[in-house]
Structures are given as structure tokens and as C-alpha cells.
Amino acid sequence: MADFYQNGIVTTLHNLSERPVEDLEKELVSFARRRPMALILPSLFSELEGEALPHIVSEISKVPYLSQVVIGLDRADKEQYKHALGFFDNLGQNHRILWNDGPRLKALDNELSELGLAPKELGKGRNVWYCMGYILATGTAESVALHDCDILTYDRSLLARLIYPVANPQFNYEFCKGYYARVANGKINGRVSRLLVTPMLRALKRVIGNTDYLEFMDSFRYPLAGEFSFRRDVLNDIRIPSDWGLEIGVLSEMHRNYSSNRLCQADIAKTYDHKHQDLSADNDAGGLSKMSIDITKAMFRKLATQGETFNMETFRSIKATYYRIALDFVETYHNDAVMNGLNLDIHNEEKAVELFAQNIMKAGESFLDNPMETPFIPSWNRVVSAMPNVLERLKDAVEQDYNECK
User: Fold this and answer.
1) Angstrom distance (rounded) from CA 309 to CA 191
2) Is the pTM of this model over 0.70?
3) 3 band by pLDDT with thresholds 50, 70 and 90
């Protein structure tokens, strides 16, 4: 059972009573009369053939309060898109699939590219951004949740607890970040959050001093969770990274746009497991290695916008401080695992710390070598200003794909 402790400057909504999902859903149905709700599912086609997504769709089909489900489909040809239409037909709610690799959406993406307004990288950030645009285009939902499609331990209570804080009309939250214990199959998981993000934030506090932003980020119990919810108005101004810095970038945007009392985090799952990335120690263009570089650069960029000045000496100090703090955390996590009868391989934990320490320097070098790098996808407000009919065209393209292939 969770405690009720409030840490940091962001409200934490705990799971204190294991409240039945049926009770939550009954309230959410009543909230939906005033605040219609939607769900975004960013998916690769390969996930339709995996173990997790069929069960996720089965669970979502039982959800009584959703008005809309928006699926972003990546890496799919026409036959695979047609297959996806049948796959998601099991959903009882109104739903549409954005066929991101289809000719209509690619043509729109090319037009936006010519204006310098399209996402520059393929991946989850781009997928989520177009789904957000579709939510704005349809104007159906007031409260929106987003979660990944590879959650092996999914049940619909996760969604209920995730969307509740932004759906309840008596709450004033604009954004909710999900969190959970990354423990499954007798092991403690979540290496990048445990061994990079938290010790990195503590190291930055020591080297450059505590700031409101670092205190804000260090308030989140699982900052890399791919599950969050928000009010629809959040979508107009948010600028998200198209790389692995998505989750850190979203939190940074929330810090920029809203007071901390309009933001919260909620305990959404007792157990959570999903597809695990390789460490990729020999390839910093993939796996957890690339993820660690992108996340670290995202932090450096945010701090630079607040007036912090970086050079290689600063990065060396950050790396050394991080390394010592992270090794201490390895011992902490090991002791926690032993007391709970779980496994934790100290050798592999320290190998990850060594890789992340090296990648702090790589991220720093990249940051200094590319001062004009702009990995953020433009806000939808800016895109609409440049192409006033873009949302209607996005909506029409999705409908035409659906009608042509259904």
C-alpha cells in the first residue's frame, strides 16, 4: 500500500485504498457529461502482432466513459493499415487511425516540411504530435489521456486513474503524469530513470545549484513514464521533442506553461511491465544509449534557456558528480531489492552507470557543437497560424483513408 507523503512541489495522488475500478468508472461517466474524454494510442504496426496490444484493446473496449480513441499507426503499408482497421474494430468507442505512412498524411507532412513546421525525426514524438493535432481538429474531447501500446500488465484501472485528475470538474489540474513501481518478474526495472535521470538531477543541483526547474523535475517519482493526461487546451502551446527526450520535454513544457499547482502525478498501477530496450553499449544511435544522450541533452537545453552557461569543464564536473551519486544509488537499490526478495545485478547496474556517465560527455559535446539544434516540433498554434486549414485537412485525410480502405 502506498504512503501519503508529498515530496517536491508537485501534488502526488496516491493509491491508498485499492478503490475498485467500477467505482472510478461510475464517477468518470458522470464527469464525461461535462468533460468528454479521449485516449491517444501511439503504436507501431508490429505491436498489433505482439502480446500486449490485443489485451490492451480488449480492456479499453470495456471502458464506458471514453468518447474517442485516436490511434497513431507507424511503419505500416496499405495492407497493414487495412489489417489495423479490423484489429481496432473491437473497440466499441468512436475511433480513428492515423495512417502516418499513408500518401495523404505524408503529403501533408511534406507541405509542413517545406514551411519548416514538420517533425524532423520519425518516432513516438512525431506520432503523438499528429494525434494531438487530430484531437484539436475534431474538437470532441476536453480531457485526454495517452499511454503506450506495449504494456504487458495492462488493465483498464490504469486508464481510469490516469485520466481522473484532469476529468474531475472539481479539480483544477491541467496535466497529470502517471507513475508506478517498475518491478516485474522478480526484478527492479526502469534503469534509465533510476540510474540516469534521478542521479543526474541531483548532480546538476550540486554543480549549478538548485533551481525551480530542477526541484520541479526531481518531484516526479517516475519522470520517464509514457503515460500522462491533460486538458485539451494544453495541446495548443506545447512544443515536444521528436527524439527520446519526449517525456522530459513534455514535463519541461508543463513547467514553462503552468504553475505547479495546476500539475500532478498519480499512482496508476500496482505492477507495470513493458517491452525492454537493449543497453546498446556499442551503439549510441540506438537503445538505452541513444535514449540517455537525448534525455541528457533535453535537460541541458532546458537549463540553457534559463540562462545557465555550459562548457566542457562544467560537463566534466557534472559527469564526475553524477558518477559518484549513481554508484551510491546502485547500493541503495540493491539493498531495497534484497529486503523485498527481488533480484538486482550489481555488475549490470554499474555497467549502465558507466555508459550513462560516458554519454553525459557525448551529450555535452553534441550540445556545444550544435548550438542551433532545434529538436522541438512547433506548437499547433504556430502551425495553424502558418497554414490556417491544416487541422481540417488532417481530419479530412484521416477520414478519406478510413472510407477508402474500410
Assistant:
1) 29
2) yes
3) confident
